[in-house]
Amino acid sequence: MKVLVIIPAYNEEKSIERVVDNLVVNYPEYDYVVINDGSRDNTAAICRRRGYRFINLPVNLGLAGAFQTGMKYAYEHDYDYAIQFDADGQHRPEFIRPIVDKMEEGYDIVIGSRFVEEKKPCSLRMLGSFMISLAIRLTTGVKLKDPTSGMRMFNRSLMKEFALNINYGPEPDTVSYLVKNGARVTEVQAHMDERLEGQSYLTLTKSAIYMIRMITSILLIQNFRKR
Amino acid sequence: MTIILRVILIIVCLLTMVFLIRKIRQAKVQIEDSLFWIFFSAGLLIISIFPQIADFMAGLLGIYSTVNFLFLFIIFILLIKIFNMSLHISQLENRIKELVQRVAIDASAQGEKEEKREESRQEEKPE
Question: How far is the alpha carbon of B98 from chain A, nearest alpha carbon, in Å?
Fold first, then answer.
């Protein structure tokens, strides 16, 4: 099974080398592609210097656009599975194998979830995640313990939908819409690291806005979309 | 607000939401862009069902007729929306400009590379 690891990167000069080197050296069985989303720092220069496989977006498109670029690439290069992988080093590649194994059981989407076996901590950060889980459970009946996890793997038929359509961002509301329209989804236990360098783009207000957007989208919009 | 006005407002809000969902299904609008209209319709719906809110706000601002407050409120919201759209359009124009320039520069670089290849091939011939 050909697996492509899609690494959207925006201003990740501090961590991109560590992340890609780890994949290349320790996990050569997976192909990867870095999607440079119009970074203003040295991300592109680093990729060129180290000879990484990367796609340079001339203009910043945001995570959805960058991820979709990766999906287009995956589809056009005949990959069977594509997984989103963070450029900041929070995702760990040792959990790609269990996700692939689960995909081969016949799922359309497999999510690397932090809370399959481990308990979700009861903090403010997790409140949003809990509310999104609840919204998804209300509209689809499926219990996702870590809906905001970015480590999601998609099979080839979904790859095509992501590559060609509007409104297919790599967010929990898209997952909710796909599940409601027949996609089979499951989670696999994965551990993630904390961000080591740089600042997370999420502040309290941004997180709150994101939560409201997602929950509104899941309950009021994705509930009514047809595939 | 008369009961007729309220009923009309409620119907309009519901119709707006239905149209919006239709446009989303037809892949004619991005969900992020539709959220404003969803919240706007929802807000108007709430005011139609509970006119006391509008009565209270009108009183606060010294506006005699509640409907006038409603007009002011809707115009204000639309002004904000249009301003945001101006910003958005500026960003879009800028992105297109970047793309055009990038394509042009890359095409010209490609052209130069091919010229160099042609030249070096010409130089190798007289052997």
Answer: 7
